[in-house]
Specification:
The model has no long low-confidence stretch (mean pLDDT 88). The radius of gyration is 23 Å and the shape is globular. Helix 2 crosses helix 3. It has 308 residues and is an alpha/beta fold. The protein starts with a helix and ends in an 8-residue tail after the last helix.
Amino acid sequence: MNYTLNQLRIFVKVAQNQSITKASEELHLTQPAVSIQLKNFQDQFPIPLTEVVGRRLFLTEFGKEIAIAAENVLNEISAINYKTLEYGGKLAGRLKMAVVSTGKYVMPYFLSGFMSKHSGVDLIMDVTNKSSVVQNLENNEVDFALVSVLPKHLKVDRVELMENILYLVGNDNILKPTKTMNLKSLAEAPLIFRENGSATRMAMENYLSSKHIKVSKKIELTSNEAVKQAVVAGLGYSIMPLIGIKNELKNNSVNIYNLPNLPIRTNWNLIWLPSKKFSPVAKTFLSYIIEQKENIINTEFSWFNSYK
C-alpha cells in the first residue's frame, strides 16, 4: 500500500460529510479532484470503503474502521507538528469552539488578534444552532462555546463579551409599514422565524407570547442569513440580532421598528465547563479574551452605539 497523507485527509473529510460535494467545499478543492483521490485511495483496498444507496454516499463497515484509523494517523501527525513548534518556543495546538449561528458575526473579531499572534494554533469552529452548541460543550467536544442565552441545565463558567440587541426589522421599500406598524399590524403580518433550537427564535416567540400575538402567517428558515435575505426581499418581518444586519442598515435595505418592550437585550457569553482541563492553547486564549475584550469591543463594535 502506498497511500498519502493527502488521501487520508480527503477520505476522512468525505467520511465526516458523507458527501464528495461538501468535502470538496471544506477542502477548497474541485469535486473531480476529490473523486480522483478517493478512487486512488480505494484502489489500494480489496474491500469497498463506500457505497451509494439512493444517490447518497455511505461508508461501509470496513470504511468506517479505515476512517477511524485514518483520523488517528492525522491526529498523530498534527501532534508531531505541534511538538516541533513547542520545542521552538511557539504556542501550538488546536483551539476548538462551538458558536451559535449569529455568533459568526461576533467571534471572529475576538479570535483574529490571537490567531495572528500565534501562528502555531489551529482553529476548529463549528457554527450551528444553540441546541447543538450546548450539546458539543456538554460532550466535551470543544474548549469553549459562544451563546447569548446560558443553558439552564448545565453548570458553566463564563466571560461576558458584549451586549446582544434584537430588533424587529423589515423592508420599508417593499412592505411600507412605517405609519401603521404596531402590535395589531404585527399580528396580521407575515413573520419569519429561525428553526427550533435557535435562541433567536426563542426570543422572538417569547416576545410574541408576552404581547398575546397569535401569528397569522409563519415562515421558518434554518439560518440567520436566510432570514435576513427573506426580510430584505420583503417576505415579512423578523426579530433579529443587530450584530447581523450592519450592512443592511447602512444601505437601507432593512428598517428597525420601535414597538413596546423592544429591543430585546441579552449578552454574548463565552462559556466552558468548570471541570474542563484546559490545554496551553485554551488557557492562553482565555487570558487573551479577558485582557483584550474591551479593546476589541471599542475598536470593532463602536457602530453599535448608534442603535442602543
